[in-house]
Design a protein that fits this description.
about 300 residues, alpha+beta, Phosphorylase Kinase, domain 1, Aminoglycoside 3'-phosphotransferase, Chain: A, domain 2, five-stranded antiparallel beta sheet, three-stranded antiparallel beta sheet, 9 helices, 10 strands, about 40% helix, globular
């Protein structure tokens, strides 16, 4: 990682400077946006973002996902080039910079925009050959990380809630039909405004894009609402906008929970497992939000015979 970040920044600079019309202030515009050796490293230089994808990322699958983002440019942020390059053994892609959601202004969170984008994504045709949506795979990875982190008193109810999920939600079987084009890892950090000053909201991060149950993309806000972490009015705004845009994951009216229950439980378990990992790694107790998702797993595990 020490060698990767400078090289990644240099490639981002070279990409910006290859465009004679690009405005760039080299002394002030470098920034590391993400840095994790087991997942992605992301740097910004001016108006360009360079992303080194996780080790072991499949080049053919990533290319299919990049091609889908290019075709759906009004819904997904389109890459600057649909062909990844290799840098220090990692696949690297280049993107235009978009302004993220402001975490200090939760009242301005673009729930309606996120819902409309998801509905449009879910209605789009699934490109031929596109791999499965990786949401269940990420949930299973969180469970493995929890097991590797070491003992914790919250692990037992999390594992019991996990075991009660159907095989497809644990990434042990194909999801039930019908399948749709899914983002796979929807949260507010996956939205940017492009152009940054006055552009439209777009979805970013194609690493988990694929065919699957579209309810998975609604599962994180649904789980937050069920855990008391998302106010009812914000959940209502999100769900209403999704339905009005013709999203297929839930019925147009009536109770959405028969469609959302399994994915919402899976995302709750995933979030709780990662909370346990953070608690063990930092040798600290669970914080209030982490306790809420673990308690949801306790309730779910109590329902298991």
């Amino acid at each position: 990682m020490n060698a990767l970040l400078p090289a990644l920044t240099a490639r981002a600079r070279a990409t910006v400077h290859s465009n004679p019309d690009a405005e760039c202030r080299c002394t002030t515009s470098d920034a590391v946006l993400a840095e994790r050796s087991d997942t992605a490293a992301v740097v910004r230089h001016g108006a360009t973002v360079a992303k080194a994808h996780a080790p072991g990322t499949d080049a053919a699958e990533l290319s299919l996902r990049l091609a889908a983002a290019t075709r759906l440019g009004g819904t997904l942020l389109a890459p600057l080039d649909a062909t990844p390059v290799t840098l220090h053994g990692r696949l690297v892609t280049f993107w235009p910079y978009g302004a993220p959601v402001d975490p200090d202004r939760p009242e301005a969170a673009p729930w309606e925009a996120a819902a409309r984008l998801l509905a449009r994504l879910h209605r789009a045709p699934v490109p031929a050959g596109l791999p499965p949506m990786r949401g269940p795979a990420k949930a299973a990875r969180a469970i493995r990380r929890m097991g590797a982190a070491g003992p914790h008193p919250a692990a037992e109810p999390v594992l019991k809630a996990w075991a009660a999920l159907p095989a497809w939600a644990r990434d042990e079987a194909d999801p039930p039909p019908p399948r749709a084009l899914c983002h796979g890892d929807l949260h507010l950090g996956q939205l940017v405004r492009h152009p940054p000053d006055a552009g439209s909201w777009l979805l970013i991060d194609v690493d988990d894009l694929g065919a699957g149950d579209p309810a998975w993309d609604l599962a994180r806000p649904a789980a937050w609402y069920a855990c008391g972490l998302l106010p009812p009015e914000e959940w209502s705004r999100f769900l209403t906008a999704y339905r009005q845009e013709g999203g297929p994951a839930v019925p147009f009216d009536g109770d959405p929970w028969p469609a959302l229950d399994v994915p919402a439980r899976a995302l709750t378990v995933q979030t709780a497992a990662l909370a346990v990992v953070k608690s063990v790694t930092a040798d600290r107790p669970l914080d209030e939000v982490e306790q809420a998702v673990v308690q949801a797993c306790v309730r779910m595990s109590a329902e298991v015979p």
